[in-house]
Amino acid sequence: MCGIIGYVGKKEKKKILLDGLQELEYRGYDSAGIAIIENQRLKHFKAIGKLENLREKTKKYESSNFGIAIGHTRWATHGKPTELNAHPHLGKYSFVVHNGIIENYQEIKAELQNKGITFLSQTDSETIVHLFESDYEKNRDSFQAFTNTINRLDGAYATLLITEVEEETIFFAKNGSPMLIGFSGEDIYFASSDTPIIRKATEVYYLEDGEYGYSKDGNVTLFNQEGEKSFIKKPLTTNKASAQKDSFRFFMEKEIYEQGRVMGETMMGRVLDNSINFDELEKSLFENITNIKICACGTSYHSALTGAYLLERIAKIPCQVEIASEFRYKEPLLQASTLFITISQSGETADTLEALKMAKRAGLKSLSICNVDNSSIVRESDNAILTRAGIEKGVASTKAFATQTMVLWMFTLYVAQLKKSITQEQLQTEINAMIHTPKALLVTDKLHAKLHRLSKRYLHGHGFFFIGRDIFFPLALEGALKLKEISYLHAEGYPAGEMKHGPIALADSELFTIALMPSSMQYEKIKSNVEELSARDATILAISPKPFELADDCIRTKYSSHPMLEFFEMMVATQLLALEISIRLGNDVDMPRNLAKSVTVE
């Protein structure tokens, strides 16, 4: 995700900002920028691409007197990776950096444009600086203007604002996106994570949602909804690698825990009170479209299979899913009435990219679902939906899969709206379930502790079967893949009803069966399938909101009212199971053998 760094003090500010942004590279970015106010002069620099480009632009600039400074690495959400869209964003005399998504930015932008204010970027973030200046022009009180600005924003934000009318002050606010304040004598630092300020600051305060304030004269004044508040500083770690992992043992573990937060960002501005909205999609994309073909590899293929179930059931549109490496060589019959969708975490997956080019040559309309803006697949596609998962350092995908699946669910409802294949009542039911999804993704201490205990029972044997029905079949495939990738144990995903057509021959006490048993979808059917395996002495781990007396072990889930809520909650359980088994086996969870994060070869 995007990264933020800020500084108030007398040290050389360019180096603090650039070094801090370099420590945030692990979060992923496609552009970067800095802004500094020193000696009543405001300077700013921006560059697309790597930080080396920004260093080159700033190599002749130095700042060594007292001043204020902010910097940012951007992961594009609204607008392409360009210098105009890069942060910091400029008003007439102020700059802002922002992480998160402002859900009501279109409403605010239209209001400001009607007042004659010109916007330079395509971003939601630029509305913050113009809103601040518009309010300041009325009351001439900079902190009140900042407070009024924050009160107008809906969505998630961690933001820093500097202005020439208050040249020794940094204004800050946090809601939904991480932000901390570091302290070292009279020097004050701001950052979106620990790493940029380690060995610079000695103490830290982690802002809570709804907190805002300003830093001036070596002091921080903090407010929340109750008014001004006191706060307690904590010692700051000196271990940068540990700080990047936020005290988690592995990046994969951290990314599993992040899923609830990033899912909120995936939905922001798209899941409205009574409809689904995709600003990035043109209505003409769906003209004369009678069917959909989705092409992907690996984990993305599993999310595609899930999407196909949803598209046919809810949007009532035929949908076919292809493995990209097979699709390329099967001489497929392609029709102009097909919308061709590609899914890729990196946007550089070679087989998927080549499949997309084939579809384009055949004249098909194309849409990509991807985590990286300006990637090859995004550039090649007619339209793109970004998953907003942020960078994923663990090779075994977790939050990328979750956000891809959520985008497909949202896309299904969007298509259903256009086709009028869903009633408003049905749509509202789906939206209500979506809104609860981040909670279904939360990892509780109780769940993680139980999976840690259970994992020691599943280290040996001749293999694993992950079984499920309907959308839980692709989840079974994904659960098996996660276990294979990081534990190196043999695992298979199967449709539960297919077990009796051959695979059940393997059933004995050394066969571990992970049974996905949702109560909201075909529970009695899968229960019967699991009973068949139990009768042949297979060891059963049931994941279900219902107790199952034949299970050797059971993970009781909380949600039972909607299949997708059960899907996401069970997904977390399978991810944690794979993680804990791999750790017990002593494997490198983040860098499993023989695998790469982005597969750019056939």
- Any idea of the CATH class of the largest domain? Alpha Beta
Number of strands: 25
Classify the oligomer. Answer: single chain
The termini sit apart by: 29 Å
State the share of residues found in helices, binned by percent.
25-40%
User: What's the story with the biggest beta sheet?
Assistant: 8 strands, antiparallel
CATH topology of the largest domain: Glutamine Phosphoribosylpyrophosphate, subunit 1, domain 1
Strand content: 15-25%
Tally of separate domains: 3
Please state the CA-atom Rg, rounded to the nearest Å.
Answer: 25 Å
Low-pLDDT sequence parts:
none
Structural class: alpha/beta
CATH superfamily of the largest domain: Aminohydrolase, N-terminal nucleophile (Ntn) domain
Number of helices: 17
Mean residue pLDDT: 90
In terms of topology, how is this protein built?
Elements: E1 3-9, H1 13-23, E2 31-38, E3 41-48, H2 51-58, E4 67-74, E5 89-90, E6 94-102, H3 105-114, H4 126-139, H5 142-152, E7 155-163, E8 166-175, E9 180-184, E10 187-191, E11 203-206, E12 211-216, E13 219-224, E14 227-229, E15 234-235, H6 240-244, H7 251-267, E16 291-296, H8 298-315, E17 319-323, H9 324-327, E18 338-344, H10 350-361, E19 365-370, H11 376-380, E20 383-386, H12 399-419, H13 424-440, H14 445-455, E21 463-468, H15 472-487, E22 491-495, E23 511-516, H16 523-534, E24 539-544, E25 553-556, H17 563-584
Parallel strand pairs: 16-17, 16-18, 18-19, 19-20, 21-22, 21-23, 23-24, 24-25
Antiparallel strand pairs: 1-4, 1-10, 2-3, 2-4, 5-6, 6-7, 7-8, 8-12, 9-10, 9-11, 11-15, 12-13, 13-14
Helix pairs in contact: 1-2, 3-4, 4-5, 7-12, 7-13, 8-12, 8-15, 13-17, 14-17, 15-17
